[in-house]
């Protein structure tokens, strides 16, 4: 039972408690390593409650994924798109995007979910389009606005958003997912985002050409790349 029914506040509170407990257990033990008994021990209630609200353990997992997707979506929707100059706005957006993608909770949700995608392919699309794609859609809308104002070349705004997000993300997210314990430094992330934005703008004929960038990069960033 993946969708929330019209239920009374007390039952809704119980449902939220089950999702909260299950999320932590799934992150730690995975789907196969988590039992209904473990969820009940953490959240209270009974098997009957879980069956009535979610159907079975897979239903609990689906509710957890939708809950995690909602959390990521909210953060993404709150990413600032300001009225500052173009370059400054893109740098602000990139720094906030990287903060979201490298948060420990985001990484935990990704690790939990990626291993179960083959069993829940419909949720893969939900997680990707409703969560991870939200930031790209915000950029697309921003570029559409900038094109109308004559501040950005009249090229495909969706492609521009895709290019910029790819430059900003680089391999930081997959590196953190695979190299457990590795974390980027805030200063290195800021420097990386600035360089990515400058490369993007130069590619669209805006800003100064990128020359001798490695001479001004910090040693930590050069080593990370």
Automatic annotation (TrEMBL):
<dbReference type="InterPro" id="IPR009057">
    <property type="entry name" value="Homeodomain-like_sf"/>
</dbReference>
<feature type="DNA-binding region" description="H-T-H motif">
    <location>
        <begin position="35"/>
        <end position="54"/>
    </location>
</feature>
<dbReference type="GO" id="GO:0000976">
    <property type="term" value="F:transcription cis-regulatory region binding"/>
</dbReference>
<keyword id="KW-0238">DNA-binding</keyword>
<dbReference type="InterPro" id="IPR050109">
    <property type="entry name" value="HTH-type_TetR-like_transc_reg"/>
</dbReference>
<dbReference type="InterPro" id="IPR001647">
    <property type="entry name" value="HTH_TetR"/>
</dbReference>
<dbReference type="InterPro" id="IPR039536">
    <property type="entry name" value="TetR_C_Proteobacteria"/>
</dbReference>
<dbReference type="InterPro" id="IPR036271">
    <property type="entry name" value="Tet_transcr_reg_TetR-rel_C_sf"/>
</dbReference>
<feature type="domain" description="HTH tetR-type">
    <location>
        <begin position="12"/>
        <end position="72"/>
    </location>
</feature>
<dbReference type="Pfam" id="PF14246">
    <property type="entry name" value="TetR_C_7"/>
</dbReference>
<dbReference type="GO" id="GO:0003700">
    <property type="term" value="F:DNA-binding transcription factor activity"/>
</dbReference>
<dbReference type="Pfam" id="PF00440">
    <property type="entry name" value="TetR_N"/>
</dbReference>
<protein>
    <submittedName>
        <fullName>TetR family transcriptional regulator</fullName>
    </submittedName>
</protein>
């Amino acid at each position: 039972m993946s969708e929330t029914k019209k239920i009374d506040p007390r039952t809704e509170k119980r449902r939220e408690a089950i999702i909260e407990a299950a999320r932590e257990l799934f992150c730690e033990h995975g789907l196969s390593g988590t039992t209904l008994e473990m969820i009940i021990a953490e959240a209270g209630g009974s098997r009957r409650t879980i069956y009535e609200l979610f159907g079975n353990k897979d239903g609990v997992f689906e509710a957890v994924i939708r809950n995690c997707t909602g959390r990521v979506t909210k953060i993404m929707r709150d990413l600032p798109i300001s009225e500052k100059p173009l370059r400054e706005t893109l740098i602000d957006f990139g720094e906030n995007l990287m903060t979201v993608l490298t948060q420990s909770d985001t990484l935990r949700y990704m690790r939990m979910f990626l291993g179960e995608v083959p069993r829940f392919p419909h949720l893969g699309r939900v997680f990707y389009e409703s969560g991870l794609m939200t930031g790209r859609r915000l950029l697309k809308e921003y570029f559409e606005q900038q094109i109308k104002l004559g501040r950005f070349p009249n090229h495909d705004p969706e492609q521009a958003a895709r290019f910029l997000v790819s430059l900003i993300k680089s391999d930081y997210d997959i590196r953190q997912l695979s190299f457990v314990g590795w974390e980027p430094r805030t200063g290195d992330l800021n420097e990386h985002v600035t360089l990515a934005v400058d490369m993007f703008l130069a590619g669209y004929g805006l800003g100064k050409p990128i020359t001798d960038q490695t001479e001004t990069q910090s040693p930590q960033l050069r080593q990370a790349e």
